[in-house]
Batch of 2 targets.
Target 1
Amino acid sequence: MTAASLEPVTFDPYDYVFHEDPYPTYARLRAEAPLYYNAQLDFYALSRHTDVTNGFRLATQLSNANGVSLDPAAWGPDAHRTMSFLAMDDPRHMRMRRLVFKGFTPKRVADMEARIHELTVEYLVPALERGEFDWIEEVAGKLPMDVISEMMGVPAADRAEIRRMADMVMHREDGVTDVPDSAIEASLNLVVYYANMVAERREHPTDDLTSALLDAEIDGDSLTDDEIIGFMFLMVVAGNETTTKLLGNALYWASRNPEQYTKVADDPERVSDWVEETLRYDTSSQMVARTATEDLEYHGKVIPAGAKVLLLIGSANRDAEVFDDGDSFDLDRVEKGNLASFGAGVHFCLGAHLARLEATVALREFASRVKSYRVREDGIERVHSSNVRGFAKLPITVEVR
Ligand code: HEM
């Protein structure tokens, strides 16, 4: 037993030291306090793979209706928070999810592949020519939001402005959990923009996602304009920063483990192993919150009804019960398919296939053009957030083929 482990484990998701490397704390939580209670911040946390993945499936006992973030008011104006089905329980959630799925289909996502490729090349090639660039600024920070915009039917001329607004919606000063005025203003502007687009498509439908959502119908029931705007907002909140950070984390960990990068540089078709291992090893969405609707017993203790409960995704993904030598970044790993990264059960990430497609296309393009690269450690900047894990800045120097 080490000296550190004589002290009871403490876990504060806002602590900067914790952000540097959360995994030793997770390991202690799994071993010493599988049901952890933080009295100061008044939340419970589950860290073992079985508890986290089962927790996702206990939708009746662990509710989403009060939001899925530990932060008091994570998404700004309340209207859009209540509209989004991530923060609803069934049957309201299921009704809306099924209607959205009529428009946001796997085929519509798969059809984006060629455009994702074109956008990646458009951003990546000029950056590679310079030899030194910030991966987040030039590629990872642009691609996910631009892909969402293209799917919705946002004109190319507006894409950059939409990206700027979306970034402002998500931006928080380090250490501040309250929503800043700039984020509220950006949310309102984005909502006005989407409202105009929905009204316009109602008059003049096209073949884009917005028109498909307007068209979606199940047994005579369809989405209201507000619900469509709420879903667009949810895509910005759930699908933009998470995918940007996934792309950043992939490059960061492959540069720290160059023998792993060699595997994809030698055979870019192995890129999906790189994507899956990054999603496991250091996922961009580290935890989600729930509210207990009844007393729940875990490990001989009780979570009282009404309590906030965190499901620690990042911890579940390193649990030795499921992942052999989970602390090593290994593209040859055989235990695939047990990831907690996209949740489970009724709220399973609706955009998982889109996130995987974007990451696969962008990283394959990178690996097939870049022989080797180095992250400039002195220039990296990590975001400090209770749940988002990844980099705001990731400068790299590349050696192209
Ligand atoms: C839900 C992670 C990308 C749309 C979720 C959940 C997780 C997650 C963990 C479940 C949340 C919960 O149960 O409380 C991620 C990660 C991503 C990613 C790690 C990228 C690496 C995307 C993308 C989109 C998207 C690209 C769409 C454009 C959604 C939606 C939900 C969701 C709509 C709510 C589903 C529901 O409540 O039924 N995501 N996501 N996500 N995600 Fe993602």
Note: The chain has a mean pLDDT of 93.
Target 2
Amino acid sequence: MKTALITGITGQDGLYLSEFLHSRGYRVFGLVRGQNNPKAEALARTHPYVTVLHGNLLDISSLVRAVAVAAPDEVYNLGAISYVAYSWDNALMTSDVTGRGVLNMLEAIRLYEEHAEKRVRFYQASSSEMFGKVQSVPQHEGTLLWPRSPYGVAKTFGHYITINYRESYGMHASSGILFNHESPRRGPEFVTRKVTRAVAEISLGLRSSIALGNLDAQRDWGFAGDYVEAMWLMLQQDVADDYVIATGVTHSIRDLLDVAFQEIGIADWHPYVHQDPALIRPAEVDQLIGDASKARRQLGWQPRVSFEELIRMMVRSDLDAHVSAQEAV
Ligand code: GDR
């Protein structure tokens, strides 16, 4: 039986990954931060097979302890401050958690490997935000990184320090450059879920409009459930490496609105959407489109859920959540 330790286990990707690893017979440990964390309580109810360890990416001693207790074959570092817009207002905290946190985890593993007769495989959740001011289209593993937000800069540090530990210490450390990936579990601060939730509420007569920022940004959106499989596949390779994970198809926020509103039978969304200048970011990443041909070739990975299926799935899930909540009253 293999053992995995996941940081960020209460997030969207942590939940999908823990289910995926559990279905493959893994023993799963999850690092959870903070006292009386309500997400940890929910995790204990919905994913009882996960052993919760308390720790914090900023506190290396807690990471050393977590690695010693779990004695993992694989560590997936998904923990981060992950909301790009928030990172301008919290740049130092973001660089600590999202950037230096990666180094803390790598150090904890390195210390463990010095004393244990075991090698640990490490996955770093890198991000397409690192491409920022994109230098070529589509973006692949060799595209120049030009991050445009404190979050992107912190992720770039995490990416390069992962590569550096692989090259310096021969660690089996891989970096997955994941493009946007969504699901019904996506946090409501991210644009897909913000839209699908609002659309469900508009359909049920609970609200009349939605405020958004830049409608012209283009993203390569895939399904998170597909993307966690790619993380696992990276750690099953003999040699650690870096991989872009993406669908290869890009859509604007306007396309997102088209699909989401169509799902509730509204063809023209304009009367329901207004732009709020406060939601425009100080620097934007205009167009992301990933070239995942290396992952397809070397990992045999490819996405299964299309953009349209994904957005429709999210709208339906948000509608169902309201209906079940009303039935429960
Ligand atoms: P992103 O995701 O920044 O790409 O990072 P997000 O969904 O927040 O933004 C996508 C694009 O939508 C535009 N946008 C809005 N975004 C939000 N959140 N709210 C709005 O009201 C709104 N209006 C327009 C944004 O300007 C942007 O262009 C996500 C995160 O999950 C990161 O952690 C991850 O690393 C990357 O994806 C890959």
Note: The longest helix spans residues 91-115.
